[in-house]
Amino acid sequence: MEILAAQATALSLLPTADRHVWSLPDTDLAQAAHTRRKAAGVLERWRLPRATVDDAVLVVCELVTNAIRHGRSPVHIALHRGQGALTISVSDQGHVPFPTKGPELDLDLDLDLDLDLDLGVELGADPDHLGECGRGLSIVAALSQAHGYEGGDSTTFWARLHTHPTDHA
């Protein structure tokens, strides 16, 4: 939790033009669409590259959907821009316990884990599975350069994306 507190303190020192924070009052899945539109508007006002905006909006939507489905309200969303990177964090008031590997969450889904997170599929299951759930964190991992998880009384999932067009793969 010290890392999360240090990150929060450092981020609170950023100029408000480089951060945007808002909350969702309830856990209605319709809030995910509202959040997607709001995030896109903020990122476009920041004049980020189109590819970064598209990736970031998808990451925001996946993290918010997970928070709505598995957490308790309110859900807090934060976008932080700085030093060639965009950091997205989504917090809720308690989440389904999630396994970690050291200080950073291994969202590349270690296939040896074979855990059921009550998301509808098992980690490491056939990627062609036709279910609607279970791919969100894999998408976050694929689109971000770094990602992680902080737990406790509240839960925060975060992802960092490059903001320079040449850095985007």
Keywords, please?
single chain, 169 residues, alpha+beta, 5-stranded antiparallel beta sheet, 5 strands, globular, disordered N terminus
Written account of the structure:
There is one protein chain. The protein has helices at 2-12, 30-45, 50-70, 136-143, and strands spanning 19-24, 75-82, 85-92, 146-150, 155-162. It has a 5-stranded antiparallel β-sheet with strand order 1-2-3-5-4, with helices on one face. The chain is globular and about 35 Å long. 33% of the residues lie in helices and 21% in strands. 28% of the residues are buried. A hairpin with a 4-residue loop joins β4 and β5. By secondary structure, it is α+β, with helices and mostly antiparallel strands. The chain contains 4 helices and 5 strands, in the order αβααββαββ. Residues 1-6 and 99-125 have low confidence and may be disordered.
